[in-house]
Amino acid sequence: xxxxxxxxxxxxxxxxxxxxxxxxxxxxxxxxxxxxxMDQLKRLDVSQVEPTAHAAPRVNVMRLDEVGPSLPLSEVxxxxxAQANDLFLVPKIVE
Amino acid sequence: MNRLTLTDAAASLxxxxxxxxxxxESCLRQISRVEDRLHAFISYNADRALADATAADNDRANxxxxxxxxxxxxxxxxxxxxxxxxxPLTCGSRILGNFISPYDATVIEKLRAAGAVIFxxxxxxxxxxxxxxxxxxxxxxxxxxDLGRIAGGxxxxxxxxxxxxECMAALGSDTGGSIRQPAALCGCVGLKPTYGRVSRYGLxxxxxxxxxxxxxxxxxxxxxxxxxxxxxxxxxxxxxxxxPQLDFELALDRDVKGVKxxxxxxxxxxxxxxxxxxxxxxxxxxxxxxxxxxxxxxxPHTEYAxxxxxxxxxxxxxxxLARFDGVRYGRRVEGSDPYEMYCRTRGEGFGAEVKRxxxxxxxxxxxxxxxxxxxxxxxxxxxxRQDFLKAFEKVDLLLTPTTPTPAFCLGEKMENPLEMYLYxxxxxxxxxAGICGLxxxxxxxxxxxxxxxxxxxxxxxxxxxxxxxGHSYEQSTPWHxxxxxxxxxxxxxxxxxxx
Lengths: 95, 499
Fold this sequence. Notes:
The structure holds two protein chains of two kinds.
Chain A: H1 8-14, H2 21-38, H3 73-77, E1 83-84, E2 87-88
Antiparallel strand pairs in A: 1-2
Chain B: H1 6-14, H2 20-38, E1 41-43, H3 46-61, E2 75-79, H4 106-113, E3 117-122, E4 142-143, E5 146-150, H5 156-163, E6 169-174, H6 180-186, E7 189-192, E8 212-217, H7 220-230, E9 260-264, H8 274-289, E10 293-297, H9 305-320, H10 338-349, H11 352-365, H12 371-394, E11 397-401, H13 417-422, H14 428-433, E12 436-444, E13 451-458, H15 463-475
Parallel strand pairs in B: 2-3, 2-6, 9-10, 9-11
Antiparallel strand pairs in B: 1-3, 4-5, 6-8, 7-8, 7-12, 11-13, 12-13
Helix pairs in contact in B: 2-3, 5-6, 7-15, 9-11, 9-12
């Protein structure tokens, strides 16, 4: 039986996850086995079946476009790793 | 007095026999006796808990309306995935660092309004991903019945704390069985409400179409009373459903004659521990003596539930966990640009199982694979839900074992993730279908003595009948009165923890 191979490096990049080489290898093997198990879903004929995205039958839940109270700025910044001028501080994005 | 049920404690408080402060002190004494061994809590603040309990006593003395505050002075502990203002919030992970929550989840607001003393942060698998609480970044919780065994997961801390009388009740969350399974393995009651019954606002999201908050308690009546307070539509959670607010305790004592319960044949197969099978069948006979009728039913797509769940749940998780990037909160690992910062922060902050699931979830959603995996899984989900709805045309409830075996040993399933995933077989489908589920004690294995849980599954928004049948069975059996061995109990086995 062939084990499904994932390009872990590529997927980790999509997920913005830095993995060490041994982590990459291990995850690759483990997920290969898991994905092989998932293949059994191919046995089913789902051509006439609608997908279920929601467990409960609610659609278009709206609210009135009214302003309400928001979290105070002090609370918003309370857990910030770095902040300045009431803003979150991050490494430079563009030169 | 910490050994009382929540209901009995509330009655004693109302009768003036005990004070809330005494009750909280009793819980804290028990915590100091057993916590070193159990590790049910990630953290708790004894001073604040006592102050809150005293405040509840003052509130009562000043004529608080106890009808509108059914939980006045009752200590309730919270799984560390639900936001409580000014309390830490870790989700069992290192990535949130020393995060202090700036707001209360809706369920916490409701419990506070009902007078509860909210205390403690209960241990859990990291971001609710796991079935044994071994994926906690802070070490596993041990089973109060055998310290060498798991307490279950991901709400392992909640189940252990309730069973060991460290609190009067606990909140947990259930995405694929995370309330019901630890309840079964530790020997307490665990309820997963119908999806949409309880607001998810303030619950750190794992899989948004599967998650629900629910109570873990010492009795079915306690669970019914808690559900009454927790439930209700919430404008801040657009997936919550406007069902009428019910008093779930009202119909609890009515008889169960003529209730039809289905036994799904796919759940009673090989691989089921013989003692679990025997205990569940004894429970069936017991319920028959109460007037329940049993019928064999079939849920033909059961074998596809694990694959379906792990595609949908990991896909949703990969999206929900994208927010942990070191920008606005939590630990940050510096980088020369934001991209590097994200990758390093997440690489260092997340544990192995979380990383595995994010990679899997990202993969099944990625271009070229979305149709083959995610879309297909969503369609199989429809088939699984239809299985249940069809069965509920013939029967009122379904009955199954909660887990295939009693609690396994710490470290036993950590080598192979797939083996761990297969353990969830009986609980997953309930979340996929969005229906309600209850686990309650139905006996013990013989050597070692470990709890066995039976699971009842109900129609969407059918918690009233679910709880009534559970209560009826519970009151006709001795299981709910059994307590784990005291402080002198030590596991026969040498420590085998691999963390």
